[in-house]
Amino acid sequence: MINSLKELEMRVQSIHGFSRPKLRLEQYVTPAKLIASIVWLSFIRGELGRVVDIGCGPGGFAIASSLLGSRSICIDVDLDAVGDCVDNSMGLDVDAAVMDALLPAIRDGFNATCFTNPPFGIWSRRGIDVEMVKSSMSFCGIIYSIHKSSAAAAVIKKTGGTIVDTSTLLIPHVYSHHRRIKYSVEVVVIRSTKPKDQDA
């Protein structure tokens, strides 16, 4: 059993990243420290029960949640990413499925706590991060999502969420167009809840 935020971060650091990262999906590994801090916040608020890691990639959010006792589901539109998640979550209570978060095959009223670091709309289409959050509200009672700081006001307006943390993403040299060893991006963590009129 995990007993501290630091221990959770150390466990998340041990998982491997994307085996075949895809630029069109804006696949970058979410830092272990950020994953651990978001999941730990949800844990101390008593929100971890059933968890969905949306656009899971290697499964960091699902794995961190499972280490704290939740039952987690990983979903991603990319088969390779789901394979990475399965590899990383061996021995934990984590299920995984290839699924488009914009067309989720999860029944209404599932009411999970959900985590996502969606594409920012740089290499994919603009506004996809908000689309993923809003689409997820059919099965998510609570959603923690990561967005560029510059988009925070627009995301809050469209989702009704509130900022619960700020951070800096350090993006390593992954793709051929990268010229620097690392890039830094200022981000916010937004906590949104399902509107009352969507409750099952």
From TrEMBL:
The keyword Methyltransferase applies. One of its GO terms (biological process) is methylation. GO terms for molecular function: methyltransferase activity. It comes from the Archaea. The keyword Methyltransferase applies. Coiled coil: none annotated. Keywords: Methyltransferase, Transferase. SUPFAM superfamilies: S-adenosyl-L-methionine-dependent methyltransferases. InterPro entries: rRNA_MeTrfase/Polyamine_Synth, SAM-dependent_MTases_sf. This is Methylase. It comes from Thermocladium modestius. The lineage of its organism: Archaea, Thermoproteota, Thermoprotei, Thermoproteales, Thermoproteaceae.
